[in-house]
């Protein structure tokens, strides 16, 4: 199974806010794709260690577009535009599971 790497995609949309619509299509950006995530056993920590990253915005800018309302008035609408995307470290957590240090425990017996 192949996963696309984290990247920026652009989709032309009409912005709608409180019944008012953008005059033209707006190139709205979003982040999507795969980033590195893995789990390994650490004998030093005596537990499973997790490294997780997620695909998200690295830089943004504010953009303003003109919207036309049903009563023919015009209003400015400001939104956050994504300029670049990348993989950022995040906390790994399984829903409903608490971290359990010492998943594998060693025991010594005396003879």
TrEMBL record:
Signal peptide: none annotated. Residues 6-93 form the CTCK domain. PROSITE patterns: CTCK_2. Keywords: Disulfide bond, Secreted. The keyword Nucleus does not apply. GO terms for cellular component: extracellular region. It is found in: Secreted. Disulfide bonds join 20-69, 31-85, 35-87. SUPFAM superfamilies: Cystine-knot cytokines. Its main location: secreted. This is CTCK domain-containing protein. It comes from Gadus morhua (Atlantic cod).
């Amino acid at each position: 199974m192949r996963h696309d790497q984290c990247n920026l995609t652009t989709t032309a949309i009409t912005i709608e806010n409180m019944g008012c619509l953008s005059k033209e299509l707006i190139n709205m950006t979003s982040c999507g794709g795969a980033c590195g995530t893995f789990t390994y056993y650490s004998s030093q920590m005596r537990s499973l260690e997790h490294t997780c990253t997620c695909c998200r915005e690295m830089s943004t800018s504010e953009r303003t577009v003109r919207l036309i309302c049903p009563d023919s008035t015009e209003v400015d609408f400001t939104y956050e535009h994504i300029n670049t995307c990348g993989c950022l470290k995040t906390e790994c957590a399984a829903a409903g599971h608490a971290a359990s240090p010492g998943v594998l425990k060693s025991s010594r017996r005396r003879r």
